[in-house]
Structures are given as C-alpha cells and as structure tokens.
Write a structure and sequence with these properties.
D-Amino Acid Oxidase, Chain A, domain 2, 8-stranded mixed beta sheet, 10 helices
C-alpha cells in the first residue's frame, strides 16, 4: 500500500478512542474506504468509568481537524501547584501554565457520533456532516490474523451471539487499536515475549461534583491542576466536564487520581483487585466492583496521609475504581508489509504520569491521515509513531519510578 493508494476496505480491531479516531481519519479521506470496527466488549457502549483526560495538543488538534464538534470539549486550568500535608499551597510550586482537561466519556460519545451516528445527550444540538459512517460491531474477539497476499489480510473472530462459529473477513488494511492488552499484538508477536507487565503500584480514581466540595477544597482545586506527593504515593486532581459533557460552572466534576504502591503477588494486592463477587480482576477493578471494606479502609487511610482537601474528595467519592499500572511496548507498529498496523495503547502503554495516552491515539491518527493523504511516506509514518511511542513510554517509566519508589532508572 503506497502513500497515494488508500485502502478500499479497513477493519479496525478496537472501538475505544484510538479505534474511533483512526476510523474517523479514514472516513475523512477524499476517497474513504469501507470501515468496519470490531470491538471486544460485549456491550453496545463501552463502560464509562468517569475518568478524566488531559486534553493535550494532539487531542485538541485532532478534534479541531477531524471531529469538528462545534462545541468546547475541555475545562481550562490556568495554573498548577502542589499542596503540603496541611493542605497549604506551596508558593514555590505555583506555575502559571494553562492546561485543558476533558473526560473520556465526552470524547467517546463525540467520536461515536461522528464515526457511526450514535445519538446521545452529549451531541444534542450539534451539526451532523456528510462523511460516510463506519459499521460498528461489539462482542467480537479476534482469533487469528493471516497474510492473504494480494488480497490483503484475513481476519478471524468469534461473535458473542455465535460463540461456536468462526467469522472471517478480508481487508486491505487491519488496524489493531484494541488497547494495552491487545489481542492483535499478541497474535502478531506470539513468539517475542511482548507482554503487559504490572510495575508495582495502582491508580485509585474517582470524581466528585464540584458543588459538593467544601470552600477550603474548592479554593485549591477549582480550575487548578493540584498535586500532592509523599513517599510511596502521589495524588493529583483537576476539573473535568460533568454529566453529558457539560462545561457549565457548578455542574462540572472534580477528578482525582491517587497512586499507591502494592507489591506484585501480595495478599493486599490480591484482596484489592478482587470484587465483591470473588472475581479477581487483572488490570481494572471497575466502578461498582470494589468491596465496601476495602473502600472504607482506603478512606480512613486518606485521612491519615493526604492533605485535608484530598481526604475530603476521597471521602465524598461515590464510585471509585482502580487501574493497575503496567508497562508494554511493541518493537514496531507495521506488519505484513504494512497491511497490519498497531496503534495507540496496543503499540505502547504509557504510564498515566505522562498524561499522553489519549494524545498518542490522536497523534497516531493524524499521522495515518498524513501518510494516506500523501504528505509523508510509509517509512516516515512508522518512524514518527515509534519515536513518539518510545519517547513517551520511557518518560512514563522515569516519572513513575521516581515518584513511587525514589528510583532513577536512567541512572541505574
């Protein structure tokens, strides 16, 4: 496939942000291909964890150029600062640097709307356009990827409604955008030992309506990117859009992320990641899954170790969830002579300290558009993706090891 010969048929494995961004890039080409999205999740909508997202330059560029939503998508925080244990702002840490914060659910619904026409309160009153739509199918688990020569790539999968039947299709291009635990990556790299590995700590996450915060908490949190750091744990927080993506003052959410260390294989980690029904979750303990005794213990711990404003935010959170922090990166993003690509978290899983996971999805999508639009060649496309992936993945490791363990991996 050359830079000027766009594919006529594309299958995208993964229907979250990276998959949807790549689909929209393809649908925006002058001669768009037929695009089919196969999402592994059995539900029609991916579950909204209420997670905050830093809207970095790549995200803002992608939404301006490709989504064109006709509305603002982010809350602006004009400054960032650190608190001490007493909850006082440390003056030497105050930095006047504007950052934009958004939410996973707002981005997801805007993308689903543009890519395959999904209607929701998030898009009420917004202007549709004439771009073609993709076919979106959920409940699809990929089982094999085979090079079909001049015919493209043969993909096989099982659908949730027909678990005993293998389905197949051939496409000019297959894109693996199926996240950090990518099945596509596993199929391509079965013998190379590329695996997602737990790194020794988790992120507790939650949100609180801004109006439920006390005056003392609002004074340090509202429209500020606020950090607190101590040995073995770090917490940060910022405002994000509220219900149905609203940016109205008084209706937004305060989003917090608290990193805590748990040794791999420890009884504490096992108990933490086991839900109320006894199921052990490998990477994410979803909203509603946490055992009450675990949450009560964590809230009490917050009172002991966090500044009072953060202890308050944790205590007022109704729907917490947990993400185990992991590392993974593939050696390359292009396979089968460019007929199979892996992108976003499937290519490289960034630690959240980089605030760049969604930015990677947007960056990779923009580069695909430049390649298929003839602005850059295939080699430069691959080089740009791998440089971005390696640089941010490495940066995340450095930040995380220093923050959580006091280690400096670049210095040994």
């Amino acid at each position: 496939m050359s830079a000027l010969a766009a594919p006529k048929s594309v299958i995208i494995c993964g229907g979250s942000l990276a998959g949807l961004m790549h689909a929209l890039t393809l649908l925006s080409l002058p001669s768009p291909p037929n695009v089919r999205i196969l999402e592994r999740s059995p539900t029609a909508l991916l579950h909204n964890q209420g997670a905050g997202v830093v809207a970095g330059p790549e995200v803002l560029q992608f939404f301006a150029e490709y989504v064109r939503p006709g509305r603002d998508i982010a809350v602006t925080s004009p400054a960032r600062h650190y608190l001490d244990k007493n909850g006082d702002v440390m003056p030497e840490t105050v930095e006047k640097r504007a950052q934009k914060m958004t939410s996973w659910d707002l981005l997801y619904h805007l993308l689903r709307w543009r890519v395959e026409g999904l209607q929701s309160p998030y898009v009420e009153g917004l202007q549709a356009d004439e771009r073609p739509k993709a076919k979106y199918e959920n409940g699809c688990t990929v089982t094999s990827i085979v090079d079909a020569g001049s015919e493209g790539v043969k993909l096989s999968w099982i659908h949730k409604n027909r678990p005993d039947e293998i389905q197949t299709a051939t496409a000019d291009l297959v894109i693996g955008a199926d996240g950090g635990s990518s099945t596509v990556r596993k199929e391509l790299l079965q013998s190379e030992g590329v695996e997602r590995k737990y790194v020794g700590y988790v992120a507790w996450r939650g949100t609180v309506p801004e109006t439920q915060l006390s005056e003392a908490a609002r004074a340090v949190f509202i429209e500020r990117f606020t950090f607190y750091h101590a040995s073995g744990h770090q917490i940060l927080g910022y405002l994000i859009p509220g219900e149905d993506g609203t940016l109205k003052e008084g209706e937004r959410l305060f989003n917090w992320v608290w990193y805590c260390n748990y040794a791999e294989g420890s009884a504490e980690l096992e108990d933490l990641m086991t839900d109320g029904q006894g199921r052990r979750h490998a990477l994410t303990l979803p909203v509603g899954g946490m055992k009450d005794e675990i949450w009560q213990k964590q809230k009490a711990y917050a009172q002991e170790v966090l500044p009072p404003q953060y202890a308050e935010a944790v205590a007022k959170t109704k729907q917490p969830f947990i993400q185990a922090i992991t590392d993974v990166i593939a050696p390359q993003n292009s396979y089968m002579d460019g007929k199979v690509l892996i992108v976003g978290d499937a290519l490289a899983g960034f630690r959240p300290h980089t605030a760049a996971s969604t930015g990677q999805a947007a960056f990779d999508s923009i580069q695909l558009g430049e390649w298929l639009g003839g602005t850059i060649g295939s080699e430069e496309y691959c080089e740009r993706l791998m440089e971005f992936a390696r640089r941010l993945q490495k940066q995340g490791v450095v930040l995380g090891e220093r923050s959580q363990f006091g280690r400096h991996p670049l210095n040994g």
